[in-house]
Write a structure and sequence with these properties.
Blueprint: E1 3-10, E2 17-24, E3 35-40, E4 52-54, H1 56-64, E5 68-69, H2 71-80, H3 98-119
Parallel strand pairs: 1-5
Antiparallel strand pairs: 1-2, 2-3, 3-4
Length: about 120
């Protein structure tokens, strides 16, 4: 059985509240799970201690037994210092799009023209 530690969504529309659960990966996101090990409330401020509550010992237990951790839950565990931080690469996310690059080139060309006109 392929186990995952993941988020299960609860709460009403536009008011999300998540449970951190250990579930079989074949089950639906909000469906059957094996154990609930914590909660996550994204509506609370980032520095609030109630934003993420997790039983870290149980999470470590399930990881030792082969459970895979989703990206969001791994970030929670990394921020608490319980698992080592893994390197993520998303090189294209920080680069501007094609149109923004073209506008930047146009601005540079105009600035060069103004600078050469002022120099003369």
């Amino acid at each position: 059985m392929a186990l995952k530690i993941r988020l299960a969504r609860g709460g009403s529309k536009k008011r999300p509240h998540y449970s951190i659960v250990v579930a079989d990966s074949r089950m639906p996101r909000d469906g059957r799970f094996i154990e609930k090990i914590g909660t996550y409330n994204p509506l609370l401020p980032k520095d609030s201690p109630d934003r993420v509550k997790m039983d870290v010992d149980r999470a470590k237990h399930w990881i030792e037994h082969g459970a895979q951790v989703t990206d969001r839950v791994s970030r929670f565990l990394e921020s608490s210092g319980d698992i080592e931080k893994k390197e993520r690469h998303n090189y294209k996310k920080g680069t501007p799009g094609k149109k923004a690059q073209e506008r930047a080139k146009e601005r540079e060309a105009k600035a060069a023209e103004v600078a050469s006109a002022d120099a003369e």
